[in-house]
C-alpha cells in the first residue's frame, strides 16, 4: 500500500492565514482544498511538500453568490457537486451544471473543487509534462 510522505498540515481559516503560511514556507508548501489529485500524486511521490496549506476552512472561497440576472460568482473552493446541484446554475447555465455533474464519481465530486480542477497540474498521469520529459523529446 502506498502511503503519503510526512508533511505538516496548516488549516487556514482566512485568505490572510493561507498567504502567510505560503510566504513562511515558500517552495516547501502546496495548497490543498479537495485533494483529489494532490494526495494520490503525493503517494506516488510526484509531489513531496513539507507543508500543506488547507483551504477547505476559508469561507470566502466556497459557495455561489449573486444571481443569474446580475451575474454569479463561483468560489474556487466550491465543490463540483455543489455546482451541479445549484438551482440557478441548473436553470440558467445547464451546460455547466451537467459538466460538473459528470466529472468522476459522486465521492470525488463531493470533494473536488472548482479551483482544484482548473489549476490541476497534470490532467492525466500518463501525460508527462515534466521538465525532464520535455528535455528528452527535444
Model description:
This protein is α/β, with parallel strands linked by helices. It has two domains: 1-60, Uridine Diphospho-n-acetylenolpyruvylglucosamine Reductase, domain 2 (2-Layer Sandwich); 62-138, Uridine Diphospho-n-acetylenolpyruvylglucosamine Reductase, domain 3. It has helices at 15-25, 38-43, 80-85, 87-92, 94-102, 106-111, 114-119, 131-136; strands at residues 8-11, 29-32, 51-54, 64-67, 71-74. The strands form two sheets. It has a three-stranded parallel β-sheet with strand order 1-3-2, covered by helices on one side. Strands 4-5 form a two-stranded antiparallel sheet. Strand 4 and strand 5 form a beta hairpin. The longest helix has 11 residues, at 15-25.
- Quaternary: single chain
Can you tell me the CATH topology of the largest domain?
A: Uridine Diphospho-n-acetylenolpyruvylglucosamine Reductase, domain 3
General form:
globular
Question: Which sheet architecture does the biggest sheet show?
Answer: 3 strands, parallel
The count of helical stretches stands at 8
Mean pLDDT: 92
| Number of self-contained structural domains | 2
Query: What is the level-2 CATH architecture name of the largest domain?
Result: 2-Layer Sandwich
> What is the rounded Rg?
17 Å
